[in-house]
């Protein structure tokens, strides 16, 4: 049974320039459809056109058939009655979809009440059960979105979107920022609906997620379909050169980064204990970060990776112990690359204006900004847009550009490639490695074990009974608290 059929759906900007060239596809009950491609390939724009959620400066053309009714993609208001009931949309940026003034459980309960029509008590119970199934207990349910890790916020957004019981799920990068265990869990949740005749359209650049989901595959590049067919067959023998390039960019296939001699200490933590909400996440840590080295940190969502980096930066006071930073260096030389860049940019201001302020602050010329744009493969036209008008991958690269303008001596890179496709991810990691080669000390957080193995000089794992692992020099002594 066909749940969704699209015929020649295309997306255009205000000038009439095609951003997505005509695409036809079919979503059948019980069979996932995966759309794969690099950042800016048009994957999310295609999904938005299918749901009638394109931003007002863009418009679509084509026909979409959902729930036995045909809709004109050029008339997005006709899709509104389907939202939450026939189609559930899992957004790319969870913090843009969550109400910052509502606690997590209340947001999920509201969806149960307004979309499914449950009574308040039943809605709260259903919300608690949904969050528990995603590994979020009562404590997480009482938190506001800004108090959640990126992975936690992603799971809350997932629960809220699914609360209405829609038969079709459109998942736009649903596992960004999640560790492998949580990614596999979300994949199982997404496919569970297929067992009862539901449909899944997954937009992703995550090769591992695509393989977990299986089904049919569409590969996109620059707004056009370059290859389509059964996912297993394409992964085994891709016909398009671009598809092969995408598969080859998997971190597991990278060469291991050459180790270099580390320089003097830039940041030190001594007997460091870091807590959140009264719970110790990291206890008694001795840690030295040296110029020119990359230290990798892994661990499940909420285990304290971001809190540790914030403590080293001075953004979060440690519960015990001390942090020492190199003397004679401006505080602005200690920089953070946020896991969710949307939270780090003013939402109502053009990106170019924000970057121009940073460039003036550090005495950087416009030509230097333009050179960094080219180095990061970013179009200058993006500077005229606001944060919500660019893709997550583009925004993450713009965040890296902003950090590079400050010429950091220490960079806390908190999941810096969680929003990037494999090809762009490799380029960004190469740039971060270049910063290290120029003398910057880097603390790199990632859920991708292969990426850390190929990139970091040494690594440590946080969470539960995690241990510190080292490559290149002895590991520090670490005692770790339970995951938050």
UniProtKB/TrEMBL annotation:
Transport keyword on record: yes
SUPFAM superfamilies cross-referenced by the UniProt entry: P-loop containing nucleoside triphosphate hydrolases
UniProt keyword annotations, A-Z: ATP-binding, Cell membrane, Membrane, Nucleotide-binding, Transport
Listed InterPro entries: AAA+_ATPase (IPR003593), ABC_Ni/Peptide_Import (IPR050388), ABC_transporter-like_ATP-bd (IPR003439), ABC_transporter-like_CS (IPR017871), P-loop_NTPase (IPR027417), Sigma_54_int_dom_ATP-bd_1 (IPR025662)
One GO MF term attached to the UniProt entry: ATP hydrolysis activity
Keyword set includes ATP-binding: yes
Compartments, as annotated in UniProt: Cell inner membrane
Residue ranges of domain ABC transporter in the record: 4-247, 267-482
One GO cellular component, as annotated: plasma membrane
PROSITE patterns named among the record's database cross-references: ABC_TRANSPORTER_1, ABC_TRANSPORTER_2, SIGMA54_INTERACT_1
One Pfam family here: ABC_tran
Membrane association type: Peripheral membrane protein
Family: Belongs to the ABC transporter superfamily.
Protein name as annotated: Peptide/nickel transport system ATP-binding protein
Organism this protein belongs to: Rubrimonas cliftonensis
């Amino acid at each position: 049974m066909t749940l969704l059929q699209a015929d020649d759906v295309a997306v255009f900007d205000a000038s009439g320039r095609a951003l997505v060239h005509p695409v036809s596809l079919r979503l059948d009950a019980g069979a996932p459809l995966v759309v794969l491609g690099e950042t800016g390939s048009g994957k999310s724009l295609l999904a938005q056109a299918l749901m009638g959620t394109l931003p007002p400066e863009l418009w679509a053309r084509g026909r979409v058939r959902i729930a036995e009714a045909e809709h004109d993609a050029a008339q997005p208001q006709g899709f509104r009655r389907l939202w939450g009931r026939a189609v559930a949309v899992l957004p790319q940026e969870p913090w843009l979809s969550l109400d910052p003034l509502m606690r997590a459980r209340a947001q999920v309960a509201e969806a149960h009440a307004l979309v499914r029509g449950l009574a308040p008590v039943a809605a709260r119970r259903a919300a608690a059960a949904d969050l528990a199934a995603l590994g979020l207990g009562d404590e997480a349910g009482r938190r506001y979105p800004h108090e959640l890790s990126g992975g936690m916020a992603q799971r809350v957004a997932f629960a809220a979107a699914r609360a209405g019981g829609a038969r079709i799920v459109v998942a736009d990068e649903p596992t960004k920022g999640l560790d492998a265990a949580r990614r596999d869990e979300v994949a199982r949740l997404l496919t569970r609906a297929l067992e009862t005749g539901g449909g899944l359209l997954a937009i992703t650049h995550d090769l591992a997620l695509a393989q977990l989901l299986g089904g049919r595959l569409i590969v996109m590049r620059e707004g056009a379909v370059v290859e389509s067919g059964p996912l297993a067959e394409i992964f085994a023998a891709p016909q398009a050169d671009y598809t092969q390039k995408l598969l080859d960019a998997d971190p597991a296939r990278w060469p291991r980064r050459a180790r270099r001699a580390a320089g003097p200490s830039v940041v030190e933590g001594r007997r460091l204990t870091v807590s959140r909400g009264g719970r110790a996440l990291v206890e008694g840590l001795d840690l030295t970060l040296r110029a020119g080295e990359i230290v990798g940190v892994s661990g499940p969502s909420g285990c304290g990776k971001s809190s540790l980096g914030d403590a080293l930066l001075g953004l979060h006071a440690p519960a015990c112990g001390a942090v020492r930073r190199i003397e004679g260096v401006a505080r602005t030389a200690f920089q953070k690359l946020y896991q969710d860049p949307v939270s780090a940019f003013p939402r109502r201001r053009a990106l170019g204006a924000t970057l121009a302020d940073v460039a003036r602050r550090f005495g950087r010329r416009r030509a230097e900004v333009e050179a960094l744009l080219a180095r990061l493969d970013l179009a200058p036209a993006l500077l005229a847009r606001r944060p919500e008008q660019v893709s997550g991958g583009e925004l993450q690269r713009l965040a890296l550009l902003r950090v590079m303008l400050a010429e950091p001596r220490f960079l806390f890179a908190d999941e810096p490639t969680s929003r990037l496709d494999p090809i762009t991810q490799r380029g960004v990691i190469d740039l971060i490695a270049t910063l290290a080669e120029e003398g910057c000390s880097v603390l790199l957080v990632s859920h991708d074990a292969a990426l850390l193995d190929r990139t970091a000089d040494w690594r440590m794992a946080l969470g539960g009974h995690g241990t510190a692992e080292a490559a290149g020099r002895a590991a520090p002594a670490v005692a770790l608290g339970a995951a938050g």
